[in-house]
Amino acid sequence: MGLLDILLGRTKPVAPDLDQLFALPSAAVTLQAAAGFTPTGTGAVCFATVEGAAFEQTHREVQALLDADTDRSGPPVELRRDDYGYSWLVSARSPEQLPELVNDLHAVNSAMEVNGFGPQLLCSLAAFTDDGGRKLALVYLYKRAAFYPFAPLPGSGERRDSALELQVKAALANDLRIEQDLSRWFPVWGAPGL
What we know:
By secondary structure, the chain is of the alpha+beta class. It has five helices and six strands, in the order H-H-E-H-E-E-H-E-E-E-H. Strands 2-3-1-4-5-6 form a six-stranded antiparallel beta sheet. Strand 2 (78-81) and strand 3 form a beta hairpin.
């Protein structure tokens, strides 16, 4: 970045850092101690829907890679489309298999990136719940290389628990790279596991 970029207020985009996903298991320990949330075993990668033979080949490769894991205790990996036109590749594990779930999410993101579909990647998430039935997702923004918490309010339609999100942000500040711009904490209504 040059002097002209600084003077004109231009910033260099953040490079995706998929290795940030590997911090989720240790963050889960902190999250349980601080707020009582435990992993559900569900995670997903969201991307803009892509059509064509190249994407279908990438999807088949990712599906075969993840389905080859014989240690999977949940249903097979599945592709879902949401009401907003995005696709979700969903992986289900037992709640104790968060490290394996993170490996799944990393593998999907990496395969998409390597095959030229990095620009279509939006986010990845891991779902959590507490004893009271509240749900929470730790969402990794691919293009920002940072996480944020998303907590939908149960039974309230499309409303979120902002106080809980800020509590989780403070609790995980030392465990995860947290997105500081709250306007980028996009709601992921209808995301798998929520």
